[in-house]
Amino acid sequence: MTTMENHITQISREDLEELREAFHKIDIDNSGYVSDFELQELFRQASFSLPGYKVREIIETFVAGDTNKDEKISFEEFVSIYQELKSKEFSETFRKTITRRDGIRSFGGTSGNSSEGTQHSYSDEEKVAFVNWINKGLAKDPDCQHLLPMNPNDEGLFSSVRDGILLCKMINQSQPDTIDERVINKKKLTTFKMTENLVLALNSASAIGCTVVSIDAHDLMAGKPHLVLGLLWQIIKVGLFADIEISRNEGLMNLLSDGEQLERLLSLSPEEMLLRWVNHHLQSAGTKTIRNFSEDIKVVYITHTHTHTHTHTQLLECLIVICVALPQDSRAYFHLLEQIALQEESSIEIDMAGLKERNLDRRAELMLQQAARMECRQFVTAHDVTSGNSKLNLAFVANLFNMHPSLQRAQTNGMEMAHIEGETREEKTFRNWMNSLGVSPYVNHLYSDLSDGLVILQLLEKVNVHVNWKKVNNHPYPVLGANMKKLENCNYAVELGRDVAHFSLVGIGGENLSEGSPMHTLALVWQLMRRYTVLVLSNLGVGEKVGDQIILNWVNTTLSQKQKNSQISSFKDHLISTSLPVIDLIDVIAPGTVKWDMVKKGEKGGLREADKLSNAKYAISLARKIGTRVYALPDDLVEVNPKMVLTLFACLMGHGLKKVIH
Known about the structure:
single chain; mainly alpha; two-stranded antiparallel sheet; 30 helices; globular
């Protein structure tokens, strides 16, 4: 008996019939063979879904051993492959979970707040994409060698975040220098030290604009799949979107439509900007544009069904509608890659022969092979393209833009446009703070995204101001009167801020917010952030109205009780530029946290600027590591920005008082 026969006899008769039925569904011409590019769909029909990564490995192995080189797979060969996979260790992972639908895995009881039996799900395709991205990005990091490379096909990703190191590294990859690596625990990792790393990662993720209000260190320690993937996607997206703004790439001004004002382009979200970028290149290619990264990318399959309720006219009308809506699928990406190569005068010539491929999954695979030649085959498989996975297609395009923007510096009417300034540090801090609280919609541009009042009203609720949402105009606004609806929201926000929250809003009206006035918007936002920061102090019994002097007195009293000499006279005190008062305070409220050999003390002449910045980075990361949700940045300490300094000390005060109470 041959090896093949041994494989077949090891499968039950019932399983064998199911495999045969799946095979016949793919072998529609009854040839007795399926093509290699149909293998992924064949496994899916056999209820044994595999990510594209694994299928490509199987195909490469099969082709290498295929004596007749016909790239076709018989039923017997398929059974042999299936049996080998079932016998491998990774197949156990698939049986531990329930596949609810293609690529979606469900599991029970993974949320501490959920009742027994609650189901959560996660995307297997996203897991594979994120693992591959992490493997590539951190491949050379010496601190991650105990974790990498991860296998995309098992559940190792979820346990890999347990010690917090990988998450901290990913945050720094997306936003460099967010975490001072001197603060990360890397050796002799006890449960306590791993928890510290996870707390540091969560608070740092919050500082770069990730929403982490429903995640804690215990969730990550347990490797809860939906929470791990959700957090990783936010972190990855921050990095992918970082350079998709005009101040970082003024070539994006080429995307201005005829007669369009620059302000409109500046207000676009990164997703909208990427869509314009793709369509800019598609128009250059003379092909039709796309409207999104889901429906216009995925394949529409037309299935003919017999029914007595449709007339011939109705069927014809239905087919016409389908044909008109038929998306670009991978053809859009073929043209995009070709235009990039042409505009960059690249030595790589994109092979467009794949456009003639009739099998849509195979066409997508051929497109990705061209993307790989440009080192941009990231995030998507052929199936992700043809199924229209919007998240992964967006990531694929964002990475492609970052690698090959292919945009020349824009000129208008023969004159170069003025340089566009990026957002200030203060604006970015406020924006990240809002987004970390989970406001909707996500704030990409501080002034334009707050101009309808909706985000401000959400923030008012988060600082315990009651909002009557029946009085609020929600999206979508009518075309006529939209500005008036937005103004009404802004007027209501100012009214609540002034009369209920008792903010100082002299000279600020709803029209200032709806017009996106920087000065007036920042004045209100700062008071919202300050109230949010000190609210915890009120809840701890410090007083309903916590003034600056109360916080200042607590800082100095706490320092003096432990014989610390770094007293400060105000939140503008020049001593704060050394960060020594902050580090001393952390040493008092969390003894043993500070490694003093990392701290620059300076001589009588004071600290150099580089040493001040080093201390500031260390202090901010230490504050986050001990559990404070700090949004201040190292530069805020070095430059002694009194607003951000206040929030930092208020957070440390809240943490210190909680420890005393508990």
